[in-house]
Amino acid sequence: xxxxxxxxxxxxxxxxxxxxGEWIKQEVVFELPGEFNRKLCVGFWxxxxxxxxxxxxxxxxxxxxxxxNRTASRSRAR
Length: 78
Description:
Layout: E1 2-10, E2 14-18, E3 21-32, E4 38-45, H1 47-51, E5 60-64, E6 74-77
Antiparallel strand pairs: 1-3, 1-5, 2-3, 3-4, 5-6
């Protein structure tokens, strides 16, 4: 999956504990350009939360991810 959009909101980090141990997630809302602007909420789990340095809100960002691979994730701010 690949898209380019504007970061609308970076939601707070959420942490918890399950039977399998500690977990962490963060969600980011993007606005995708087009005839009808769409909003997309993307959730990042585990180590991805710490690795990704989010750009400031209202900046353009490009996301690439292999939805079949749980370890691949890249983002680039413009």
